[in-house]
## 1
Amino acid sequence: MTTLLAASCGRVVESPSAPARRTPASPCDERGDTFAGDVKLARCLTEWFWEQRFQQAGETYRPITRFVAYHGEDGPDCGDQKSVPDNAFYCPYGHFVAFDATWLQEMYDRMGDGSVYVVIPHELGHAVQAQLGTRFRYNAERELQADCYAGATLSGLIRAGMIKEESGDESELLTNLEAAGDPTDAWWAPDAHGTPEERQTSFAQGFNEGPSAC
Ligand SMILES: [Zn+2]
């Protein structure tokens, strides 16, 4: 995320006079050096990020109830919708997130850990939308806001010292945006996620300006 981060310097609107930071203690026990560890860490840190945001607004973040790894065809139903392979989704019935771990690990192995740090914050972004009761005219708006939330989450976590950007992360993240996240959510229009350019723009907006810009 080096370049994205550099691009955001000077345009960070959230903490213009942040004091020098010590290395903060992580709120999460998980270690992010394996696929399984990164997935759990991404979930934990993303929910921690939203907890802080909700708290700042005088609200209480409602954590997801389940975080389900499945493989191919054996995913959980969402309402009367069957889950499908090669997907990740947020289910409003039961307020949970599920992901095809085979699919996600394949991306992780091929494209790096950024895949996990795009997909999981994107899906948890849908959980936040559900909690906020945000309404959308078009599905693409919902999806682009989730991308924006994912960008905001990542930059928030970097600024909080919870994750460190590595060189190559930016292209990794942007590549992942093209491939990632609930492509076949049956209860929204299937190909209404926005173009890759729109998704990247939305992600970058959240990254540079924070969740209130989403
Ligand atoms: Zn989505």
## 2
Amino acid sequence: MKIALLGFGTVGSGLPALIADNQEKLAALLDETISISKVLVRSEEKAAQLRQAGHPWDFVTSIEAILNDDTISIVVELMGRIEPAKTYISQALAAGKSVVTANKDLLALHGAELQKLAQKNKVALYYEAAVAGGIPILRTLANSFASDKVTRLLGIINGTSNFMLTKMMEEGWTYKKALETAQLLGYAESDPTNDVEGIDAVYKLALLSEFAFGMTISPSQIKHQGIPTIQQADVEIANQLGYVIKLVGEIVEVSSGIFAEVSPTFLPASHPLASVKGVMNAVYLDSIGMGASMFYGAGAGQNPTATSVLADIVRIVKRFKEQTLGKSFNEYKRATRLAESSEVLNKYYFSVETPDSTGQFLRLVQLFTAVNVSFEQVLQQKGDGQRAVVGIICHKISQTQLASLETKLAKEDDFNLLNYFKVVEEN
Ligand SMILES: NC(=O)c1ccc[n+]([C@@H]2O[C@H](COP(=O)([O-])OP(=O)(O)OC[C@H]3O[C@@H](n4cnc5c(N)ncnc54)[C@H](OP(=O)(O)O)[C@@H]3O)[C@@H](O)[C@H]2O)c1
């Protein structure tokens, strides 16, 4: 079974060695050899460099060389970004080739269209590596959870922000120091926006929604808030109240539909997700049959990601033999229904800057009470004589109440709402 690679970067260049290392197991599973034939690179210069470095594959610089090669059955796209990846994948599917990709941005934005094209041409489009790198979460949801109903999904699905938050929580690093170190270690790009603002997690959450809830939501329908606003005061209050702060993607189903959001979240220190540290990823599920379960592992990196890519290739080879290639990666599909905001209930943490004088706390209580929000836990930080920060965890409120409270606080000159984050309860 011949494969073409589009892109020979971090993940792409790891795939050949992984295939070689697993040759014995692959042969036992498939009674067929998998071999890489052509590799698309950007320029002749790059192709020459790679040949010189001893790589034995046929490096090409035009997609036509792959599309017109009838011996190639599987195209593995590992270039990233939207274009030309979208065009090349579409052309490969139209040419009757199955496609494996790890491109979450592309799939979250154009997955439905590409999936239709794959089905029309009776070929496969698989993308296990696009969510949580090495964790086989999509196939697990598609196969093993076929007999179960997921009611809530919580995911730590961005390693960069999790690394930064771990350092901020455990070592007292500032956001700036955490970001600089993440960039130095190669965990964050020079433009970290997608990672720190939760956009990368939004793309992955959109894909998880299809597999866990059978509903397609576009990234623009997923509310997101990033980690740059997290202050030292938030970290201290979280620590003192027994929580850790993580960037969590959540999808929950209520009677009116699903609600999806990526936001900094207070997790009880004893919650299984609180133990997910550094660049590691995890997806935590509440489901009717299984109860609570968590899938943990490396969310990125050459080997973990290439492992998921190779698993997709193996599945395609099997489907090819079974003559079931046209079957969709995910067959669970329901009409998308978005939850009413009044039905989505959560506890929230608020940090509010107040004048550092007596009587202010009572005024704050009155403001919250006016929109029917009651306090569960409060921590007043020592002020500087001028201003003080109060950390509040409220009882459960709806999205509608949250919006009213935000509006109310915005009108108050004395009180400055610094941050509010969702609080997840212990199961
Ligand atoms: N790295 C991870 O841990 C990880 C984890 C999960 C998913 N992914 C996904 O996997 C994909 C690949 O990631 P990566 O980390 O391997 O990226 P990468 O290291 O930047 O590699 C991408 C490669 O594609 C090449 N490329 C880009 N555009 C091209 C074009 N038009 N023609 C030919 N070659 C082109 C680049 O060449 P130049 O260097 O010449 O630009 C580069 O060698 C992305 O979609 C990413 O989101 C990565």
## 3
Amino acid sequence: MIVVRGFEARDAKPISGLFTRVYEERYFYPQIYLPSVIRHYNRTQQWQSVVALHEERLVGHALLWRSPEDASCAELAMIVVDPQFRGRGIAGRMSRYLCDHARRQGMSVLTIKMVASHLWTQRLGMSLGFQVTGLLLDYVASGLCPRSRESAILGVLPLQPQPIPLLYADGDQPEWLCALLERFGTVAPCRSRHSEEPARISIQDNRLDLILDHPTGADALEIIRLSTRRVMHLRLLIDANLASVVPVLHRAGFVDTGLALGGNRQWYWLLQRGFSDHLLHLHCPTARDLHSGTRKDMALAQHY
Ligand SMILES: CC(C)(COP(=O)(O)OP(=O)(O)OC[C@H]1O[C@@H](n2cnc3c(N)ncnc32)[C@H](O)[C@@H]1OP(=O)(O)O)[C@@H](O)C(=O)NCCC(=O)NCCS
């Protein structure tokens, strides 16, 4: 019999062992290899882990990772099941346990990053009620296949309303956006205010990430001068100014890859450049629409 229960301090070491068996040392979040860190994060509730046990042996793990910006937001993450115990509904049981836990705590929203290299977590995400909102193409080095890159599919499960600021007039929005507006509802975008806050920038392998909380035309002109040799992922807060910024980026070869909900519960527009064009295994129609739009836009951008 499989028992699913909340984290206890003695689970930390076997959780590390499970990730080492499945990923060797390639897992994206190295914290998982240090039992003392797992215990610390669970003690401080930044992580809320759940484990699956078969006769006292730890065979599964998943967690809610609370946002440091807003504790009512969390990511459902680090879902892994021992290869000998897969296909028996263990990931589903652990994930439902955590979704119920989030509801009982009055949390406002859960997010998930599902890998595009197989359908299992995508199916799991859909059955839990997550809505696909965006793609992160060529996001990280794959933890399971050395030397290849993994794309991620973003999903959002609203536990309280999370309306999307309406950027375009009715009929002008891309097709993939219609499904999202229908699911989440809409709100008028905030007026952009002048801010001294610069873009948040970081580099991960060959990927450059930029997050702009007050995107302006001047920011766009700076960004389009950056090297085209890197994969670039942009996240631009959706405000009243964004509709004038996005076309500048499109002309410089950036393509829309959907929306992401930030840890502050605000919606961001995703644009990317420099990723490779390969087929992905996508379960959800919104993800397929988004990806085919991305491939078409990329082909057009290369043509000009
Ligand atoms: C992904 C993973 C956690 C799934 O664990 P699991 O306990 O086997 O999953 P479940 O039995 O609960 O099934 C989850 C969904 O995947 C489907 N699934 C499971 N195994 C499958 C398989 N071999 N082929 C196709 N679908 C499969 C199930 O049918 C279910 O979908 P449904 O809800 O529509 O029926 C497990 O395969 C794993 O640890 N993989 C490596 C790590 C990984 O990729 N983690 C996810 C990172 S986002």
